[in-house]
């Protein structure tokens, strides 16, 4: 076999040998068939020749697009027709012959027309078994529904129950509701524009509800009770406070002096607070460094050995007495000592019980003094309650602590005696209405005290000279 194969290769290389296929090349004849392991899928795609399969599939798709199916399955009447030789011409209404070129549609319309005769994809269950798997897969994805299997099972169960004459629960409830609605006769109220309709007063108090409160609560028809605290004002101060008479543009002398005194007291209180903070932060006189303390710090490490020797001498004496004391406390008590201690405890208990009994007997003769003491205690309690109530009433007009910051009262807007204008024309506006309203909201406990947000620059400023400035300089 090897010799015969070698002779064929030699004959094929000769110049007078006639090839079976003219398209084959000399190199193709010399190439041997490569042995490939077909157990791996990688080698299937690389070394498998599927050209004939692809050509067959392309031919099938072309037939489906052009004729709507395979030509071999078409009947003869759809493929052939009988030519009798008659030619019908297009004749216009006037009797003249119409040219065939004008009767053809435009090419732009032909491009937009759907030239494929393949029917649109249907549901996978109703498709033909000869359709391509790509169409089947796309049709399945197009018609998929969430929980389709569960819905199909529910519909099948409903059909089985309907065949037996059993209705589902939802349908039973609907039927019962229809029957109940038909049995009840609704009262037809007159329309809003009916002349005989009774007059409705908008400002009358609502009528009392006689229905069950639990039923109204479950049906969401009962209004939520408004808490009493929401009806209380957060502060007893008025919304707009009138300034003192001394703050007028033309005040009286005494009222103006009283306002100046008030501003002076505020300033003095502020200075005292600053001085108190300075005193607290100041270093005490005892902690200040002196010449003696400086000298002690300088010679701190020089007298170390002498101090250790003194401590050793002081610690030798009391160390010998410890074991003796411990041995004395560990001595065991005798039977007579334990009996004596027990008798003393019982005697002490009897004495305390007799004293308590004597005290209770004497309280019978002290009922009048006890009653007087109780009245005094009740009076003290009522006085404390009155003071507490007065303190609470006073606190209603004071700002509360609503946040991390305390309320700071604004500065009094006061003018000195030489700054008071003589007329309203010369009056200069001071302060800000917006700030005044903002402070009023804080003072009346409607918003918490706040401070202005600090502006923090994210990036540093970069100064660059413009070209126009450089040209001048």
Question: Concise description?
Answer:
The protein has 19 helices and no strands. It has 473 residues and is an all-alpha fold.
Q: Can you give a write-up of this model?
A:
The chain has 473 residues and is mainly alpha-helical. It is 50% helix and 0% strand. The protein starts with a helix and ends with a helix.
Distance between the terminal alpha carbons, to the nearest Å? 102 Å
State the shape: extended
Give me the secondary-structure category. Answer: mainly alpha
The percentage of residues in β strands lies in: under 5%
Instruction: Please provide the ordered H/E string of secondary-structure elements.
Output: HHHHHHHHHHHHHHHHHHH
Low-pLDDT stretches: 7-24, 91-95, 317-321
Q: Please tally the β strands and state the result.
A: 0
Main beta-sheet annotation: none
Radius of gyration: 57 Å
Q: What is the overall pLDDT average?
A: 78
Percent helix, as a range, is 40-55%
Count up the helices: 19
Structural topology:
Layout: H1 2-13, H2 26-30, H3 41-47, H4 51-67, H5 76-79, H6 100-103, H7 107-112, H8 133-142, H9 148-164, H10 169-183, H11 213-218, H12 253-281, H13 291-298, H14 304-314, H15 322-329, H16 335-363, H17 367-396, H18 433-443, H19 467-472
Which keywords apply here?
473 residues, mainly alpha, 19 helices, 0% strand, extended
């Amino acid at each position: 076999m090897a010799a015969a194969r070698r002779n064929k290769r030699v004959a094929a290389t000769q110049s007078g040998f006639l090839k079976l296929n003219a398209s084959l090349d000399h190199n193709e004849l010399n190439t041997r068939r490569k042995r490939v392991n077909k157990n791996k899928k990688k080698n299937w795609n690389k070394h498998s020749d599927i050209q004939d399969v692809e050509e067959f599939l392309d031919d099938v798709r072309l037939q489906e697009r052009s004729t709507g199916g395979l030509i071999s399955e078409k009947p003869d009447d759809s493929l052939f027709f009988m030519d009798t030789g008659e030619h019908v011409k297009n004749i216009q209404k006037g009797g003249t012959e119409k040219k065939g070129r004008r009767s053809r549609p435009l090419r732009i319309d032909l491009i937009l027309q759907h030239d494929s005769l393949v029917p649109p994809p249907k549901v996978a269950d109703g498709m033909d078994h000869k359709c391509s798997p790509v169409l089947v897969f796309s049709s399945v994805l197009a018609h998929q529904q969430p929980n389709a299997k569960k819905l199909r099972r529910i519909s099948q169960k409903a059909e089985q129950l309907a065949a037996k004459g059993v209705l589902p629960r939802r349908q039973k409830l609907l039927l019962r509701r229809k029957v109940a609605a038909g049995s009840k006769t609704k009262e037809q109220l007159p329309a809003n524009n009916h002349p005989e309709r009774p007059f409705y007063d908008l400002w009358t108090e609502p009528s009392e509800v006689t229905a069950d409160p639990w039923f109204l609560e479950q049906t969401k028809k009962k209004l939520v009770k408004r808490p009493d605290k929401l009806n209380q004002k957060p502060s007893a101060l008025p919304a707009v406070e009138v300034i003192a008479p001394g703050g007028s543009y033309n005040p009286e002398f005494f009222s103006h002096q009283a306002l100046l005194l008030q501003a002076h007291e505020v300033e003095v209180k502020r200075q005292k607070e600053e001085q108190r903070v300075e005193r607290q932060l100041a270093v005490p006189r005892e902690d200040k460094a002196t010449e003696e303390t400086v000298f002690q710090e300088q010679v701190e490490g020089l007298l170390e050995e002498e101090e250790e020797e003194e401590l050793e001498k002081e610690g030798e004496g009391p160390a010998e007495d410890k074991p003796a004391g411990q041995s004395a406390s560990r001595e065991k008590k005798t039977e007579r000592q334990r009996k004596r201690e027990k008798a003393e405890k019982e005697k002490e208990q009897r004495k305390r019980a007799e004293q308590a009994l004597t005290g209770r007997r004497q309280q019978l003769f002290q009922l009048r003094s006890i009653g007087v003491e109780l009245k005094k205690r009740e009076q003290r309690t009522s006085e404390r309650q009155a003071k507490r109530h007065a303190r609470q009433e006073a606190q209603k007009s004071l700002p509360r602590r609503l946040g991390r910051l305390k309320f700071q009262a604004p500065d009094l807007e006061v003018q000195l005696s030489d700054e008071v204008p003589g007329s309203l024309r010369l009056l200069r506006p001071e302060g800000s209405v917006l700030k005044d309203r903002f402070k009023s909201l804080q003072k009346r406990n409607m918003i918490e005290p706040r401070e202005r947000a600090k502006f923090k620059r994210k990036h540093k400023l970069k100064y660059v000279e413009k070209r126009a400035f450089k040209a001048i300089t």
